[in-house]
Each structure stands twice: as C-alpha cells, then as structure tokens.
Amino acid sequence: MSNAGYSCFVLDQIKRMAARGDVVVSVHAIERMRDRKVKGRDLFSAIASATNAAYQAERDNWKVTGGIDADGDDLTLIVAIKANLIIVTIF
C-alpha cells in the first residue's frame, strides 16, 4: 500500500473511531479548546469532514487536516491512535 493509500486508510480508521465515540481528549487539547472556544461537536465535525491525515513520525501521531468545525471554520487536530483515539491538540 502506498503512503497516500495508507493515509486514507488511517483517516478512515480515525473517522470510525470518532463515530463510535472511542475518543479521549487530552488535558492540553481541552485547554486549547477553551482558548479557541472550540466545543466537542466541533471536534467531531472536523474529524468527519477531514480530507487528510499525515503521520508525524517524530511525535508518533497524526495531523488531521481539511476538516471544518460546526461553524464552517477550518480546524486541524493532532491525534494519536491507541486503544482509543486520543486528541492531543487542536489549532
């Protein structure tokens, strides 16, 4: 499987985990959400509408881009895939 194909596979996995509610939001991400006035529904909207997931080897996590929040604003998430989908931060 090519890198692009694998990224699509992982993005689908991220979306499935979020749809099932298998999500944990880190303390850091909660702080960023407060700072940026982002709600939980915005996280799920951004994941559902995301178009790309890029692996960040130096941090062993995924940068999820191309998604929009519930208000239509761009929202990027950094996530880790473990037993649950862990939202590390947002911007």
Work out the count of structural domains.
Answer: 1
The portion of residues forming beta strands comes to 25-35%
Number of helix segments?
3
- Span between termini: 30 Å
The rough form would be described as globular
The helix content is 40-55%
Q: Report the uncertain regions.
A: none
Oligomer: single chain
CATH architecture: 2-Layer Sandwich
Order of helices and strands: HEHHEEEE
Please give the order of strands in the largest beta sheet. Answer: 1-5-4-3-2
Largest sheet: 5 strands, mixed
The average pLDDT value, as a whole number, equals 94
The total strand number stands at 5
The secondary structure category is alpha+beta
Whole-angstrom Rg = 12 Å
CATH fold name = YaeB-like fold
CATH top level?
A: Alpha Beta
Describe the structure using short key phrases.
91 residues; alpha+beta; YaeB-like fold; five-stranded mixed β-sheet; 42% helix
What would your notes on this structure say?
With 91 residues, the protein is an alpha+beta fold. The chain has a single domain, classed as 2-Layer Sandwich (YaeB-like fold), CATH 3.30.2310.40. It contains 3 helices and 5 strands. A 5-stranded mixed beta sheet has the order 1-5-4-3-2. The chain is globular and about 40 Å long. The N and C termini lie far apart (30 Å). The mean pLDDT is 94.
In short:
The protein is α+β, with helices and mostly antiparallel strands and 91 residues long. 42% of the residues lie in helices and 26% in strands. The chain has a 5-stranded mixed sheet.
